[in-house]
What does this fold into?
Amino acid sequence: MKLVIQRVAEASVTVEGKITGKINQGFLVFIGVGKNDTEETAERYIKKMLGLRIFEDENGKTNLSLKDVNGGLLLVSQFTLYANCRKGNRPSFIEAGEPQKANDLYEYIIDKCRQEISVVETGIFGADMKVSLVNDGPFTIILENLN
It folds into this structure.
């Protein structure tokens, strides 16, 4: 699994001209599911993501979590995080999870996050999405290899 987490002031996803998800302060998270990922894998990533203390406290130190600032989550599935560009110029995606499994894990992550965070918005799995964001910082964290 790979997560690209961007701390945002605001973010939204549009599909076919309609906003499918929109948040103010929080995390925009691009989620890549690998072919060997499981619900247990997802649990580790969810715990790490929700525990990240990357929001500023009253002293300007990155010491607060998403819950501490009552932030929202915008979760977007993105299999292209598994692009392998080692050979040639056309990326290979053989390490990405097959679509049904990836969608199932994406939905699992959404459900688990909704149990913890009050505002959880999403893109649409497999859709052509337009993502807009105002990155706060900029602040971007990449989670991978949390074995």
About this structure: The CA atoms of residues 105 and 137 lie 30 Å apart. Residues 99-114 form the longest helix (16 residues).
